[in-house]
Design a protein that fits this description.
The complex is a heterodimer of chains A (about 240) and B (about 280). Chain A is about 80% helix and about 0% strand. Chain A has about 240 residues and is mostly helical. Chain A has one domain (about 1-235). Chain A is globular and about 55 Å long. Chain B has nine helices and 13 strands. Chain B has helices spanning about 40-50, 95-100, 110-115, 130-145, 160-175, 190-195, 215-220, 250-255, 270-275; strands at about 1-10, 20-25, 30-35, 55-60, 65, 80, 150-155, 180-185, 200-205, 205-210, 225-230, 235-240, 260-265. In chain B, the strands form three sheets. In chain B, strands 6-7-8-3-9-10 form a six-stranded mixed sheet. Chain B has a four-stranded antiparallel sheet with strand order 2-1-4-5, with helices on one face. Chain B is globular, with a radius of gyration of 23 Å. Classes of the chains: A mainly alpha (about 240), B alpha/beta (about 280).
């Protein structure tokens, strides 16, 4: 446990030093600024989009960028020849990013409380953020596996957005007919949106929340067990002239 | 310390194995040089020894136990000095070292190591602002952070000025003198000659030679002595078989001529490298 704590601390220090945390804060402040000009009802309608972008899209690109730096500077190799497992390393990345997203959401939540007297149901928010961020951290790692350089990372990120995120956004803003939402029902993005909505909805469908949570948890496990973990060492040691 | 038996390794995408039955031992306290041209299987062997590659045929023993039976605590006893810089560029040297050191149970003192390698004054500088030589020296500090029993060094003096290269070599020698074991890879043959107790040459996945530098130089050299002396204003060079140096003729030349140089016919490690691997050094044709 002490090792995980140290690794999470290290991850967070690097998020700061590489200005990735600041980038997240700046994006959060943009959301707050947008929220300031909206009514509470408009803001409620806008919130799912904010959550979706922060917990999924931002997390995936942030992790992709972290992995890109670590690979470029060969520090990931240095970690591998230390007494820690790949699981500990990936877990620390997940925990650090959950912490990062939670801080951002607390910042947005606190701002909206003072600006609009708007309060989140934080217990639902923490649960949703934790599982969704874990899933998109793993997506970010997979993106870095598939990308030879930063340009390729951005391209793969764009492809991921087109497949996973953009269809739901298009439904949300009315470009796609509402019926498309039914087709997308079991897409991870829709499950994410349903869980995130619980943090400000007046009533929560507990059964659906549990199903969505379990669904994302299972997807995360499968991704971790069968994609992320088996390829981690070969990715980390590729181009390594030990 | 390490015992390797009939080690065979094939990358999944390759049709041919990269390593074709390597067998060697590295004794405790030994500085063992592992030499070979690019693509010969040097890197693969090292990756297997430090558990960075999972599957292989044959056996690798570390401290008497099969390597695969070790969990990640294996790295408590290992230090790896990579050829390329391996530090977070936006963290200071000290932040980097402290981060990595906390992953280990055993802790070496950072200050004396950094002072010796001329990095202490720059400990609070971002590694991104370091020169290549400073980053390489920092790699060595990183490798020694956990007081390892075994050091893997990949081109440890490459890119260093002569003064720092000497300091690094002194540290390696002291490490071995204190009981540590070293697995060294370098293309700088003078370093290998100076440091290694034994060297192994690998070519196309097979070990082609393994012995002490001295024995190899004798084996691949000529048993001759060449004298150079001045005679009638010009330099004369005469080569005698080693067995003939007790003869009167040799003694007479020594007594009567103005000797300038005396060379035995032993060869250099560079020549042996070319001979046993079939490849020239430093990208020569």
């Amino acid at each position: 446990m002490a090792k995980i704590k140290h690794l999470v601390g290290g991850e967070f220090t690097r998020l700061n030093k590489y200005n990735l945390f600041i980038a997240s804060v700046v994006v959060a402040l943009i959301w707050v600024a947008v929220g300031y000009f909206l009514s509470v009802e408009e803001f409620k309608a806008f919130l799912p989009f904010v959550f979706l972008m922060e917990a999924s899209a931002m997390t995936a690109i942030l992790v992709g960028a972290e992995m890109f730096y670590e690979k470029k500077e060969h520090t990931i190799s240095s970690m591998l020849i230390s007494p820690m497992t790949e699981t500990e390393y990936i877990t620390s990345k997940i925990l650090a990013n959950i912490l990062n997203v939670l801080i951002i959401f607390v910042l947005i939540g606190a701002s909206m409380y003072f600006l609009k007297d708007f309060l989140f149901a934080y217990h639902w928010l923490i649960l949703s953020v934790s599982i969704v961020t874990a899933f998109y951290v793993l997506i970010g790692i997979v993106l870095s596996y598939l990308s030879k350089d930063f340009t390729a990372l951005l391209m793969n990120y764009f492809v991921m957005m087109v497949i996973l995120v953009i269809p739901s956004i298009l439904v949300m803003i009315g470009v796609f007919a509402p019926e498309v939402k039914d087709i997308l029902f079991w897409s991870p993005t829709e499950a994410t949106l349903r869980m995130m909505n619980a943090s400000f909805a007046s009533t929560v469908d507990l059964k659906q929340f549990a199903l969505d949570f379990a669904y994302i948890a299972i997807l995360s496990y499968l991704l971790f067990r069968f994609v992320v973990l088996p390829r981690f060492k070969s990715y980390a040691t590729r181009d390594l002239g030990v | 310390m390490f015992k390797v038996n009939d080690l065979v390794f094939k990358y999944p995408k390759n049709s041919e194995p990269t390593l074709k039955g390597l067998t060697f031992e590295i004794a405790k306290g030994e500085i063992f040089g592992f030499l070979g041209p690019s693509g010969a299987g040097k890197t693969t062997t090292q990756k297997l020894l430090v558990k960075l590659l999972p599957y292989h045929q044959g056996q690798i023993f570390f401290d008497g136990k099969e390597l695969h039976s070790f969990d990640d605590s294996f790295y408590e006893d290992i230090g790896v000095c990579f050829e390329m810089p391996i530090s977070f560029s936006k963290l200071t040297a000290m932040e980097n070292l402290q981060f990595f050191q906390k992953l280990y149970k055993n802790h070496a003192e950072i200050q004396p190591l950094m002072e010796r390698l001329g990095l202490w004054e720059d400990r609070d500088k971002l590694v991104g602002e370091f020169s290549k030589g400073m980053k390489i020296r920092l790699n060595l500090v990183r490798a020694l952070l956990n007081k390892p029993k075994m050091l893997f060094l990949d081109e440890p003096t490459n890119g260093l000025d002569p003064k720092n290269a000497r300091i690094v070599k002194e540290i390696i020698r002291e490490f071995a003198r204190d009981g540590g074991t070293v697995f060294l890879t370098s293309h700088i043959m003078s370093d290998v000659d100076e440091l290694c107790d034994r060297v192994a040459f690998i070519a196309e996945g097979k070990l082609t030679e393994i012995d002490s530098p001295r024995n190899l130089k004798i084996k691949y050299g000529q048993r001759t002595v060449t004298l150079e002396y001045k005679e009638n204003g010009s330099v004369v060079s005469t080569t005698y078989p080693m067995d003939a140096i007790k003869n009167d003729e040799f003694a007479e030349v020594l007594k009567t001529k103005d000797i300038e140089t005396i060379h035995s016919g032993e060869t250099t490690l560079e020549e042996i490298f070319i001979q046993v691997t079939g490849v020239k050094l430093h990208g020569e044709d």
